[in-house]
Amino acid sequence: MGHWLAHRRTVQPEGVLTRFDPRFWSVNFPRPMMASVVTTAQDALRVDFVFYRAGDLAGLIWDSADTHDHVLLRYATERDYRRTTLRFRWRSGGLVALDAINGPTLTIEGRDANGVARAWYVRQWNYAVGDPEDAVVTIDFASVAGGYTHPAQADPVWAGDIDRMFISLVAPGYAEGSDAPIGPVEGWAELSDMRCTGSGSVLAIGETIVPEHRLRMATGYDDHYNLTPTRLLRNMLHLGYRGTINHYVGMSHYFRLEEQDGGWYASLAGGALNTPCRSWHLDFARRAKALGFGLIWSLSYELFDAHCWGDWKQRAHDGSPALTGWEPPSTLLSPAHHGAMGYLRSVAQAFAAIAAEAGQPMRFQVGEPWWWVQPAGNRPCLYDDAARAALGGDPAVITDITQPMDAARRALLDAAGALLAASTAALCDAVRAVAPETETLLLAYLPTVLDAKAPEAKRANLPIGWAKPAFDILQLEDYDWAATGNSGASVRGVALAEARLGYPANEQHYLAGFVLNPEDAHQWPAIDAAGDVARGRGVAEVFVWALPQVLRDGYVHFDEQEDDVQAFDDVAFPLALGAECEVTPELSTAIATSASGHEQRNANWAEARTRYDVGPGMRSEEDIVALLAFFRARMGAARGFRLRDPFDWRSGSGEPRHDDQILGAGDGERRRFALVKYYGESARRITRPVAGSVRVGVNGVVTGAFTLDPGGHVTFDQPPPVGATVSAGFAFDVPVRFAEDRLSVSRATFLAGEAPSVPLIELREP
């Protein structure tokens, strides 16, 4: 696979966009209220709201600078609106009306003609014709003014340098800054017949179309709840993604809430999902289907902590709750709590109903279900009241899961694992009760459930109750390892998960990712490579996690040509070569001779390339038959293969030792080192070491804590310390190809003792 991190649009194609296109509006609001925006036609959008407090206010936003889309697909930044007129039909319900105090107001943020930052507040009723809840609004930005009444309070807008504008929307009874409960109160607004005219009404927009590839997309509602589904799907489609979208429904925006003692808590009153969430997901599912995308609906045991009932939370032995590192934090629901699990089952069924309404076959993923381990102190959260009761009433105390376990504590972890597996089975059964043909998937995060510092944790967090056929598909992710290039840990983690749960590679998915922070964009090559490794071992699907980071960092994926991928067959030349084989190292040296006879020499190549003639090694007609078959299978010179050089095939003079060749020095961060063999000061890259022959040392001490990656790279489980000498010994083959596309062999000349010529040439590999 190949990839590119795009930082700006240069020669890529562009189209045109009418300003204020409904697809590119967004929403914003404070917790705990909720809102979403969807497009209802090419010239229309709808916003749904749920207000809980008197001070809740939502904004429907148009940004002058597009920071949400992929850099190759963004619309151009243009802050001058003076030659633009916007006209639309406004309809609303459940909101303060256009003609009332605190009615829909267009807030314009930017700078005045003197460059001083400021905002203007444009009362839409001043530019409306019609009723307070059904009117046509026309705003000419060359003459628009803020202020409540005109002309007495008119505040002319200078629209030549605008950053963004938003329509503020509130519920009846609005009181700025008030936390007094008023809800839930639902409202909606529609903008239709949207028209933007004037010479400033058209913007350039990126129209890059990446060829369709095999990588799939993973995304999440918590990251893009504020954007239209149309906008997100446009990005996926243009970036070459097809097939299935793995969609995480999130942990902080789907729920309904009820008030108790000044707090707001997840509730099933009125249904499992709030109206904005349901509206958004139905639109997303329908549009995905229309574009040929299938959906995997992912639901986790994670819930926004501030809205989670206290007795639903997993807790450590000291009563402290399971809290993630997000800010603000989320918590983990107890698999033992009937109320928490019943709530989760209702949520899953609600999303299954949306899938059915959209005509999408239901594919349901249980996402990263586990017993949380608190990072500070490694305390497992097995001790909420419901879990204590389910685990015998007075379970053994585990204060640090990384410490050695006695039989009682191992038994406790096994029982916790069985409890977790039973809860995931009940969750899947609930979905199948409303969607009988549901395909079920389990997502396991290997660095946590298979933490080498806590070898017994897998009893609870990768329970044998998940073994095949508990789920249809096992999904694995390991981004702590993949993003840092720790391929050795990935290989061992996958092998352990396969051995423990029994899902073959073709019944697995792999989620490659993810780059948490923009400054870590250098991790993308390792992530892309990890996806390539997963595909190489035969998994059914590979997903990139996730869309927000893809858009933020400009990640572009493309499949390389099949011929490029398969240009080397990792097979050995079938015949043993004797001393008759001809070996010819060659170099390229440019020599300039002056009139005085002095020479100036320049080496064009950094290392020698070797030519071979293996014909003299042919000993029988059987050898000739094998050679001809091998030549045909390689399609002549088209495909490379391995050759054992009879004179140079080891790192030293004897059996490979860990200190034969110096690979480099540790810096405390670098994990990956290329195998090399030195000939004096000249280094030769070894890209085809013999499996099982590699011996590695750090500061002269043999180590097995490494993985041998394709291309002759050693990847350590942990970076060698600063200044440490990294060395290795190995046997190796030479990558070669046939030098010609024809091979001439005569039985008569061969029987007469004349050897055929079979020239080979060494391949340069990165």
From TrEMBL:
Superkingdom of the organism of origin: Bacteria
One Pfam family here: DUF2460
The Non-contractile tail sheath N-terminal domain, residue ranges: 18-206
Domain DUF2460: 569-764
InterPro entries linked to this entry: DUF2460 (IPR011740), NCTSP_N (IPR057102), TIM-barrel_NCTSP (IPR057122)
Non-contractile tail sheath TIM barrel domain residues: 211-555
Protein name according to UniProt: TIGR02217 family protein
